Amino acid sequence: MALAERVAREAGTLVREGRPRRVDVAATKSSPIDVVTAMDLASEALIRRSLASERPQDGILGEEEGLVAGTSGVTWVVDPIDGTVNYLYGIPAYAVSIAAVTGTPDPATWTVLAGCVHAVEDGRTWTAALGHGAFLDGAPIRVNDARPLAESLVGTGFGYTERRRVAQARVVADLLPRVRDIRRIGSAAMDLCTLAGGGLDAYYERGLSPWDLAAAAIVATEAGATVTGLRGAPAGQAMTVAGPAETVGRLVALLEGLDADDDAPAEQDAVG
Ligand code: IPD
To answer: Quick check: is 47 catalytic?
Structure first.
């Protein structure tokens, strides 16, 4: 946890001090709006160097450069800037996210040992280690007690492809009248950490990658959240739902009823 925090802070300094007044897009990924900036690449390079010099036997899975396997059984899962679109526009909600996991670096099977999410602009830093609790700037944090969905503030996010967004828009349209309100912060890691400290009552999102999830998931679970998928699956790409257990139970049932883990519900499939 200490190493994750130290390296996340180092990368945060680079990202903050190196931000030009106007940020350019260096490349795109799943669609023209799924952007990579030069700073995503530079931040990941710094993180890889720092982790490798301290822990040369460990693997590293990063959003931009993929997996370099290790031999120790530990893999660092790294998002050099989570909330890249916010970074591009100067909206101050982006973070560096670093976690250590054992097993295959896949949310379906991994065990997250420790993690750190460092919010670059305001410096808020969430840390957690398995069985040792979750902290914001060193002070213990806890999720809110469960409340009815109608009184719950729910965070979510959207993917980058048109097909995924059509499905996500359908789900959010159904959910919005049933909850206190919806928040779309723009960084999945910050959503989950905000939830961990009581700033949201629940969170769900389809399409999270391992680096969006690893560090923030341990912060949320160590703060007392249930973090899961739908239909008995673990949290991951198909769906991530988080919050106090009772709220998650209600939200999971609702999302399953809406087929929120399916981009093309039955009637659309039939049409083609
Ligand atoms: C994205 C953010 C966003 C979420 C997307 C992620 P990136 O990560 O976490 O909140 O809705 O699903 O891809 O691209 O900024 O690292």
So the answer is: no
